[in-house]
Amino acid sequence: MCLAVPAQVESLENGIARCRVGNGQTFLQASTMLLERPPRVGEYLIVHAGFALHILDAQKAEESLQLLRHMAEEFQLVEQEYNKQKMEDDDLAYPR
Q1: Do 20 and 40 meet the contact criterion of CB atoms below 8 Å apart?
Q2: pTM recorded for the entire structure
Q3: Contacts of 26 (CB under 8 A, 6+ apart)
Q4: Spelled out in words, what is the top-level CATH class assigned to the domain 6-93?
Q5: How far apart are alpha carbons 14 and 19 in whole angstroms?
Q6: Who has the most CB within 10 Å: 44, 59, 60, 91?
């Protein structure tokens, strides 16, 4: 299963979009040849395997990014609780 994250177009050159992923410093390049129309700088793309598949409006992109951020935060909390419990279980199993 793949998860596509909205990426914002920073620049375009010869059918290749340079896109920023989320608000970070991660960039990717995507071919725009599969799109119905060329994207504009500032628009968001859904990219898979190096190809832009869909142009996403800014509101939908931000909603998706907020949801993904929330999911990541929840995952971190679950992971922290799991690791804490595992450490407690390990302490019980192997007394020092």
Answers
A1: no
A2: 0.73
A3: 20
A4: mainly beta
A5: 14
A6: 44
Three-state SS string across 15-75, please? Answer: CEEEEEECCCCEEEEEECCCCCCCCCCCCEEEEECCEEEEEECHHHHHHHHHHHHHHHHHH
Instruction: Give the model confidence (pLDDT) of 31-72 as tens digits.
Output: 999 999 999 999 999 999 999 999 999 999 999 889 988 998
Residue with tokens 């628009």: 43
Locus of tokens 């192997």: 94
pLDDT for 93 equals 62
Q: Nearest-CA neighbor of 20 among 40, 5, 3?
A: 5
